[in-house]
Amino acid sequence: MKIVVLVKEVPDTYGDRKLNLETGLAERGAGEVVLDEIGERALEVALAHADAHPGTEVVALMVGPESAATTLRKALSMGAASAVHVVDGALVGADLTLTAQTLAAALGATGFDLVITGNQSTDGSGGVMPAMLAEHLGVPALTALSAVQIGDDGVSGERVTDSGRAQLAAGLPAVISITEALPDVRFPSFKGIMAAKKKPVQVIPLADLGVVADDPELSRSIVLSVAERPARTAGTTITDSGDAGVQLADYLVAQRLV
């Protein structure tokens, strides 16, 4: 079985995040960048299955700049057998539609039995990529799974909803996404870190995937304006001199809150 795990380089969740006020894009140099934790958890699901089922091939797939190669190597040090890195300057600032089309093309070129991804990244938090990929690829999608069971010719899992728990299943090939309810990730061992330096990483430009970033027939979103978040100001203080209730009501009405 071939399992492809989607991973992503993101700004460190615990660090400062800053937007470029000219482009509206995240400033990658403003802080540390890391492998997205939800992608690590998705990788752990694949690696755990590979540990129990010899012959399973786990491939890490990333779309990102050349500088993300170091971050991608972490997925290899954790245990992925190989990696695919889609790199192209035309992908800078790519929206969900272009990213989904690019990932789907890369998955088609790489081949897969199962695609595992997180339910949403910690930077964009779009939450729709798994469903978009499944639509492009023409395969079933089981999304937001809190438990996963992978079989020889199918996959099943559980999704927690507001009203209960849903049991889902689909045949392979398929796309699934997982939530943070799934297991903590393994730490790369020294042996894994050294082995990662020799594992193959296939670098693919858009031209090799047949994707045209500026195709006018494809919908693309653009940033119309961006502004720095205003500084926090002191709130309104109401001093009770016997008419605090009236003051509060007047304030709520003025703010159109009632």
Which short descriptors sum up this protein?
single chain, 258 residues, alpha/beta, 28% helix, globular
Polypeptide structure, described:
The structure is a single chain. By secondary structure, the chain is an alpha/beta fold. The chain is built from seven helices and twelve strands. The strands form three sheets. It has a seven-stranded parallel β-sheet, with helices on both faces. A three-stranded antiparallel β-sheet has the order 8-9-10, with no helix packed on it. Helix 2 crosses helix 5. The longest helix is centred in the N-terminal third of the chain and has 16 residues, at 37-52. The termini are far apart.
- The number of helical elements comes to 7
Order of helices and strands: EEEHEHEHEHEEEEEHEHH
Which spans of ≥5 residues are poorly predicted at pLDDT below 50?
none
Radius of gyration: 22 Å
The rough form would be described as globular
**Major sheet summary line:** 7 strands, parallel
Write down how many β-strands occur, each being a DSSP E stretch of 2 or more residues.
12
Q: Report the portion of residues in β strands.
A: 15-25%
Percent of residues in helices: 25-40%
* Gap between N and C termini: 59 Å
- If you average the pLDDT, what whole number results? 90
- Strands of the widest sheet, in order across it, are 7-11-6-1-4-5-12
